[in-house]
Design brief:
6-stranded mixed β-sheet; 6-stranded parallel β-sheet; alpha/beta; 2 domains; glycerate kinase, domain 1; 19% strand; single chain; Rossmann fold; 429 residues
Length: 429
């Protein structure tokens, strides 16, 4: 066992990331190049750069594919691009889309539309693709999509609800990329960042049937009291924006494979914990809900284990939400950590880390934003010595400032993968 509980938690976070990195999970599942025709690589999401880099090396160097037969483009979050030799790499906005994502998505659509029956369209998909591939439906302007995205992110809607809306305002999401790629064969390799690993939700399902409807998209906006821009209200009532459903011929020549899931990362971290003599207790890889509510529940569980003298580590993933009531900085993982610290009340022998495996958690969309934060037994004491009131920071949704001032932010930088949240609460009795 490592001497430092904080170092142990950092090691666990890094193990979770490593298990989901494309350099680990992608090469064994890359399909052969087509016998004739082109191999068209289309990548989007926070792992797009690393997936494109790994795939390009595999086809050009390992398999010796003629470079003239390899075309494609990847669109990743700003700061998440990787060096490629032949394939175009674009960095774009996330979680709020921008003009770079608009241009990159259009290039992907143009390549898909050019595919023939001899070509293979290989889609490399990861979390963040919904924002990176931005192709608004007819009549919807980019600024309107940006405004709607901000409203949805502040509302407390979960990722499935948000993507239900996105899929009905897009020319690429909700199965439309697969439809456009006909008659080529389409193979999608996806890294899941969503609870339940639903292909229709990962990246808003650009190559799979969409079971959600326009009516459901409108209902999401009603439920969260979001008054959309006029162009969006019109688009969500236009039958032309209904997405292709299960059984549609658009998917007759399409395959979909999950190559890494949140659970795979927890398998790796459970093994590491056992190797260190700590019993792992997995609470689930697909938790949802308000970050502060989940934190309260996990604090109670940790205190129970401490009272029983049980040395263990609570592990959990998923995607928590924050309903914004203040104007501070932070994200679900940092808010979870701050609420957890408050609920633990400075209890001895309990340590925690909460971080997003993509390397950034909420924030302003900058690649240098923190991934999360650590909680230590003296977190509250050090905060009060610095004149900080944890409850006030929590009320203002300002967890980043809180942990920044006491030096407890988790800052790995861009990891170039994404299997969503990683939380570990260590009872070191």
């Amino acid at each position: 066992m490592t001497d430092s509980p904080r170092a142990f938690l950092d090691e666990l976070f890094n193990a979770a990331v490593a298990a989901a990195h494309p350099s680990t999970c992608l090469p064994p599942v890359l399909p052969p190049a087509p016998v004739s025709g082109r191999l068209i690589l289309l990548a989007a999401g926070k792992a797009a750069g690393s997936m494109l880099e790994v795939a390009e090396h595999h086809y050009l160097d390992t398999l010796g594919v003629d470079p003239s037969r390899l075309v494609g483009i990847g669109v990743a979050r700003h700061g998440y691009g990787r060096p490629t030799r032949q394939l175009e790499m674009v960095e774009a906005g996330h979680p709020v889309p921008d003009a770079a994502g608009l241009a990159g998505a259009q290039k992907a659509l143009d390549l898909a539309a050019s595919a023939t029956a001899d070509d293979l369209v290989l889609v490399l998909l990861s979390g963040g693709a919904s924002a990176n591939w931005i192709a608004p439906a007819s009549g919807v302007e980019l600024d309107d999509k940006r405004a709607l995205t901000r409203a949805l992110l502040r509302s407390g809607a979960n990722i499935t609800e948000i993507n239900t809306v996105r899929k009905h305002l897009s020319r690429i999401k909700g199965g439309r990329l697969a439809a456009l790629s006909q008659p080529a064969k389409v193979v999608t390799l996806a890294i899941s960042d969503v609870p339940g690993d639903d292909p229709a939700v990962i990246g808003s399902g650009p190559t799979v049937p969409d079971p959600s409807t326009l009516a459901e998209a409108r209902e999401v906006l009603t439920r969260y009291r979001i008054d959309p821009p006029a162009s969006i209200a019109v688009a969500l009532r236009d039958p032309a924006n209904e997405s292709p459903k299960p059984g549609d011929a658009a998917f007759a020549n399409a395959e979909y494979h999950l190559i890494s899931r949140p659970l795979d990362s927890f398998v790796a971290t459970e093994k590491l914990a056992r190797d260190r003599g700590v019993e792992p207790i997995l609470l689930g890889d697909n938790l949802e809900g308000e970050a502060r509510d989940v934190a309260a529940a996990q604090a109670a569980k940790a205190l129970e284990l401490k009272a029983a003298g049980k040395r263990a580590i609570l592990l959990s993933g998923g995607e928590l939400t924050v309903t914004m009531r203040g104007n501070g900085r932070g994200g679900p993982n940092q808010e979870f950590a701050l609420a957890l610290a408050e609920a633990l009340g400075g209890a001895s022998d309990i340590y925690a880390v909460a971080g997003d495996t993509d390397g950034t958690d909420g924030g302003g969309g900058d690649a240098t934003d923190p991934a999360g934060a650590f909680v230590l037994p003296d977190t509250l004491a050090r905060a009060r010595e610095a004149g900080l009131d944890p409850a006030a920071f929590l009320a203002n949704n300002d967890s980043t400032t809180f942990f920044e001032r006491i030096g407890d932010l988790l800052n790995p930088g861009p990891t170039c993968t994404n299997v969503n949240d990683f939380r570990a609460v260590f009872i070191d009795v």
